[in-house]
Hints:
Distance between the termini: 14 Å
Structural class: mainly beta
Radius of gyration: 17 Å
Largest sheet: 10 strands, antiparallel
Amino acid sequence: MITFRQLLLSAVAVLAGSALIAITASGQEARPPAPTLRSPTSPEKAPDADGFIQRWLLLEPIPFNDLTEIAVRAGVKKEYFPNQFTVLPKDGDKVTVDGKELAWHAADTTLYNVNLYHFAWALNKPTTNVLFWAVTIVNCPREMPNVRLAIGSNAASVWWVNGQEVASLFNDRQTVIDDGVSKRITLKKGANVVRAAVINGGGATDFCARFLDADDTPLKGFTGTVVDAAMK
């Protein structure tokens, strides 16, 4: 019988073998890897010392050019690819958006934030007027009630936990820690899916996310993974 641990280790081997390197199309100059992002090399990753989630699956950017609340809300409701609010992609999975094939990339950030400009630039993808999808799985050893998702983004973003929208930011802005904080929610025992859409107008773009406990201090005691076997 294949155990859960074997599934995790097998998936990690695939992740480690597909390093987050510059992917170039014909005629494009090769670029160095994103300096703040690494391919996962372990089944799970704990948050950093300040509780920030550092492991994510990132989809290559989709064209989008409005940061206002009305436009962003309409934009994230558009179906760019099948099951975009429920899919749990694996590293290297591909989707087709407006006739273009885009890939998902598993990444660990070395910082508290995820630098989407580094991510897109290293892949020779656009960084201006674009939308990024990000997904991670938060694994909890027990039920964790009365927690809040705290996020920051450059620029606009919308966030979901286990399929429910919990936080959002709009308009042109810099990433500020805990800029947006959700109402109190409960993380269930086991796997919890955190999903985000981050929209950039121009220049730098990044995001950060962590959970705060009942005392509004950084939540610890969970791990993040991008391995779909965690849902089994």
